[in-house]
């Protein structure tokens, strides 16, 4: 039983009736925490995926909008920050629901929603979730990205540059980075995963080769002082990005060899796929299975003799 359930069980409906809103949210796991990132930037955590906020009196710029269940809490959190909850621009790093759940509220308040065209396409139609054997419903029109791109582009917030670009197949088919160049803050979505196991949504277009390329791209954009914001977990620096890239490169090379030998994911694990890496995964089979599927989706990239 989680903390919220315990509070509910102990106090019944009384909490909601007698406490002022700030006390009610203090009892709730649904209230995101505000974590400083850099001057003028904070991150709301615990809202599904992280929500990065560039605060400014002229209006806030957000990267991702959290899961739908947390929308009210995210909006409340934003109201308490400079800019008073006026979001002018929202980026979606990809189309997973923990990143776009608040889109409807921001779309209704006429924020510009910027995303990769593949993200818009996913959100505009019912799409199949292979691992759950069900269809995810399209988002309402107001919740969908209003400005899309394929390769990359840039915009201004005040006089500060915001650059954004595609991270081809790093995690899904619609991943992007958002780089606040003047502040040296780089939102990387799920293309870096310092806390949770890296996820390759192979059915949604992600694969290990794409992840390696994407992380090389992120590394080129960054320097020793860059604050890198993932979808999950803490803000990290270049060293953590380099560490995940080293691991992904090593796994790419090992798996390429083992795929050519015709091994299944379990065969690969039994053959020592994960041995001696710089990090231990919580669920190595899940990673190996998804990565393996991704290889077969890209067999034409492996070598002429694979099939
Ligand atoms: Zn994701």
Characterise the protein shown here.
The strands form 3 sheets. Strands 1-2-3-4-5-6-9 form a 7-stranded mixed β-sheet. Strands 10-11-12-13-14 form a 5-stranded mixed β-sheet, covered by helices on one side. The protein has helices at residues 3-11, 14-18, 21-27, 71-79, 97-100, 103-108, 117-123, 208-221, 238-260, 265-270, 284-297, 299-302, and strands spanning 33-38, 41-45, 51-54, 60-63, 87-91, 112-116, 127-129, 134-136, 147-149, 152-157, 160-166, 176-180, 185-189, 227-230. It is an alpha/beta fold. A hairpin with a 5-residue loop joins strand 3 and strand 4 (60-63). The relative contact order is 0.10. It starts with a helix and ends in a 5-residue tail after the last helix. Zinc ion binds next to loops. Zinc ion (ZN) binds next to loops.
Q: Which regions contain 5 or more consecutive residues with pLDDT less than 50? A: 1-28
Radius of gyration: 20 Å
The separation of the N and C termini measures 49 Å
Class derived from helix and strand content:
alpha/beta
Q: How many helix segments? A: 12
What about the largest sheet? 7 strands, mixed
The average pLDDT value, as a whole number, equals 89
Assess the beta-strand content as a share of residues: 15-25%
Strand order of the largest sheet: 1-2-3-4-5-6-9
Rough shape?
Answer: globular
Which series of helices and strands comes N to C? HHHEEEEHEHHEHEEEEEEEHEHHHH
What's the β-strand tally?
A: 14
Q: Which cofactor or ligand species appear?
A: zinc ion
Helix content: 25-40%
């Amino acid at each position: 039983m989680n903390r919220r359930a315990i509070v509910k069980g102990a106090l019944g409906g009384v909490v909601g009736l007698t406490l002022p809103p700030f006390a009610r949210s203090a009892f709730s796991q649904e209230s995101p925490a505000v974590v400083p990132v850099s001057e003028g930037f904070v991150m709301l955590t615990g809202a599904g995926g992280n929500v990065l906020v560039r605060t400014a009196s002229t209006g806030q710029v957000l990267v991702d909008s959290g899961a739908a269940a947390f929308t009210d809490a995210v909006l409340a959190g934003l109201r308490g920050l400079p800019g008073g909850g006026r979001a002018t621009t929202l980026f979606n790093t990809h189309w997973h629901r923990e990143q776009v759940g608040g889109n409807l509220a921001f779309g209704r308040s006429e924020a510009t929603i910027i995303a990769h065209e593949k993200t818009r396409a996913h959100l505009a139609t019912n799409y199949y979730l292979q691992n759950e054997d069900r269809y995810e419903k399209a988002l309402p029109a107001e919740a969908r990205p209003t400005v899309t791109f394929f390769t990359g582009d840039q915009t201004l917030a005040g006089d500060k540059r915001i650059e954004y670009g595609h991270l081809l197949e790093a995690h899904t088919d619609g991943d992007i980075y958002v780089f606040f160049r003047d502040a040296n803050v780089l939102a990387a979505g799920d293309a870096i995963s310092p806390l949770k196991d890296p996820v390759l949504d192979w059915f949604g277009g992600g694969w290990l080769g794409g992840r390696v390329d994407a992380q090389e791209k992120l590394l080129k954009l960054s320097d020793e002082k860059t604050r890198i914001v993932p979808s999950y977990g803490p803000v990290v620096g270049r060293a953590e990005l380099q560490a995940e890239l080293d691991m992904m490169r090593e796994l790419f090379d090992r798996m390429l060899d083992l795929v050519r030998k015709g091994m299944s994911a379990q065969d690969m694990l039994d053959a020592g796929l994960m041995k001696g890496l710089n990090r231990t995964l919580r669920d190595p089979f899940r990673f190996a299975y998804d990565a393996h599927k991704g290889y077969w989706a890209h067999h034409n990239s492996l070598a002429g003799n694979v099939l």
